[in-house]
Amino acid sequence: xxxxxxxxxDRLWEAVTSxxxxxxxxxxxxxxxxxxxxxxxxxxxxxxxxxxxxxxxxANRFSVAREHLATAVNERxxxxxxxxxxxxxRQQARRRPGRxxxxxxxxxxxxxxxxxxxxxxxxxxxxxxxxxAQVPTxxxxxxxxGTGPAVIALSSSIATRLPAAHAAIAACRATGTPxxxxxxxxxxxxxxxxRLGADAWAADARxxxxxxxxxxxxxxxxxxRQVIDDLPHLADMEYAHVSRTAPDLVRHVLDGxxxxxxxxxxxxxxxxxxxxxxxxxxxxxxxxxLYVDDPDLFSGFMAWAxxxxxxxxxxxxxxxxxxxxxxxxxxxxxxAIAMLxxxxxxxxxxxxxxxxxxx
Amino acid sequence: MTExxxxxxxxxxxxxxxxxxxxxxVEPSGVISRLxxxxxxxxxxxxxxxxxxxxxxxxxxxxxxxxxxxxxxxATASGPIGDRVFEARAVPLHSARGAPVPTxxxxxxxxxRVRLAEDLAAERxxxxxxxxxxxxxxxxxxxxxxxxxxxxxxxxHLAGAALVIAAPSGPTYPVAxxxxxxxxxxxxxxxxxxxxxxxAEAMRGLPPPRWIDPSDVPGWVARPxxxxxxxxxxxxxxxxxxxxxxxxxxxRGRPGFSESEETVVRxxxxxxxxxxAAARLYGEQASITETLMRDLLPPPAQHLPGIELAARYxxxxxxxxxxxxxxxxxxxxxxxxxxxxxxDVAGKGLEAAVLTGKIxxxxxxLLPLAGDHRRVLELVNAALLHDGGTRFATLVLxxxxxxxxxxxxxxxxxxHAPPLIVRGDGPIEEAPTGGxxxxxxxxxVSTTAExxxxxxxxCLMYTDGITEAFGGPLGDEMFGEERLYAGLAGCGGxxxxxxxxxxxxxxxxxxxxxRHDDMAIIAITAPRRSERGGS
Lengths: 359, 535
Fold this sequence. Notes:
The complex is a heterodimer of chains A (359) and B (535). Chain A has helices spanning 6-17, 21-33, 38-58, 64-82, 85-93, 112-123, 137-147, 162-174, 191-195, 205-213, 227-230, 238-244, 246-260, 269-292, 295-311, 320-329, 334-349; strands at 99-104, 127-132, 151-155, 179-182, 200-201.
């Protein structure tokens, strides 16, 4: 594997983040023509670039608009590369039998990782059906019945989509199709992948292609599994409670915050709305952590959120009252309380609330 | 039992003598000292003979092994004697410490018990197999996958190798094969049914299974399989009404099934056949639906000369692919105006989609009149009223033309939310257009707006599924236009696909996974730079 020179990454970064699609495509294609391996270009230059776009947004150095623009340009660069004659030639030369499907689970907006997997698998000679971002599980199932690929690769970036990912994995496997998963949602080292019944997990596009080169995972056993079979801890109904009463939990926290902080009365509608959204996010991540029974997931999110606030000049401590109010409302739910307590302690003890982006 | 009841040597006491089990006493030296009648009859031996010579090896071995077990209680062993199976139980006759003692062996006939246990185990294996197999077949509605499951399971549990030929689709027959490697393969093959004896009959669903010789069939049926010799069974797979195909099992040994095997094979054939028939039916229905739906689905991405365009559509029901929102893009014939249409029919689901189909067809026919939006809307209105339905629709027509670096857009809304102009440098404007709903009044009015898009400007059209999305962090609010405008703030200069995604994402995250109405969004952008290699 040859590393692309930094100057290429820099030039591409410049073009992509300024929204100069033509310059970005020219730079990428020139690198390809100059002998850089297409797989390396996609995975060692373009993929990290996308990661950097996300970090810039998290650090409040990019506006939402700029993040969207850069992402869209990045996608267009990938399309331009995919149509390059040298790339097509290579796809043809390595043509192998067998069809693979790639999709993002329902509610998953980050299409780029799935897109990269698609392009790399095509380069390795697979016939790939790319189903795109946020595919409803129903559509996945009818697609699988109709087309019958050897394997379906599902991508999910955000941990709050894990319950949806679980449903999608189970539905795909019930059609007899093995499921490979990937994306940050599945946790460090893909720790949730097996818990949610996936047949294989891949850390990135290259690992996914290498795994499939060994042959697709065997078809899953035809046993109808219930959610509770994979995740027996759900029997305590804590996840069900938190997800069902989420609006009520958010309302409770907002009311509590308003009585604790009289300043909130002066908040604009916009500010109130942002606060409500932030609280809703906390509740969503608490739900996801309860779903997979991993306190790290919730603590990781809270650390990340603290970092995000810090980057916007808001002290991380301001998250503490929300956690306290949630604990108050979730009395008698030991798993949830333990997770809230732990996150509370960690934020209190952290000097500089910078975390890595959660799954 | 230490004393001889009748005093004669080598004979056990009267109780043991007539016991229903064979009993014999063996001295430490390994010589049989006494036997009862049953033992004498069973072994055909008399007292004084060595056990090793009179009894089967397993019993002699068990007796020798007793030396290691002194004081450890009773020992048991089992094995065949003649054509029966016996369980032997040793009882030491003295418990004098350390001294070698004679042993009484009681032999119980357990032939029946063993057979029942074996039958039970076999039955359990068959049950497990049938349960596994029905699980496979219940899950899949894909013909190829059903066939692969059938041959894989059959090759593992019923035969050395299995082949399934499905009823033909067109000129070819789908064929799946699985040999002893357990790896199924699939192909489409042109088959002359006369090539294989019994195939034509089985394909017509005529029972019973027929056995044929591998040397009578072509190589693609009797493939070389190491260690699998013997006959091939040709078994029809019953479908729903019409036969689903044929199963060929390559078996070790002689032709013929045992009674229990035949039951299992018949059940298997019925389930495999039913699954294949259902999968085929599903496939045919899906393909019919696909064909009928084609005109109702949003068009694939369209390229307009010198103009960037992105569109997105999401029906309200996840299960459905169509609904009451629609859009169409008609590229200009030559240098003229392209027409972009966004519409929303009251209602949702398939019924609404059918009406969108009618409106779209009408609009297509009216394309030559697209220069006059008012006229087009009047004609569509008349057509809808004439149709006599109670449904109505809202529409936006956008005629788009590139002029040097600018894009000119003529916009007419008929009862629809006015399109938004997102300027490249940030400001958001509502296009000043409005008009009556379509399909309600005989006379309609409309105002057309003329808008110029400068490089980086976007004209954004959306349906009310966006603004009426219901949810929010507290689950009780409509998304609304204000939040949409707020969400678009700072989005000037975005590429159209990013803008469309942003709007969709804002609304979708607002409903937070709950039910929503149909959503359609379309963005028309004046390119910021001249296109690569283009005009």
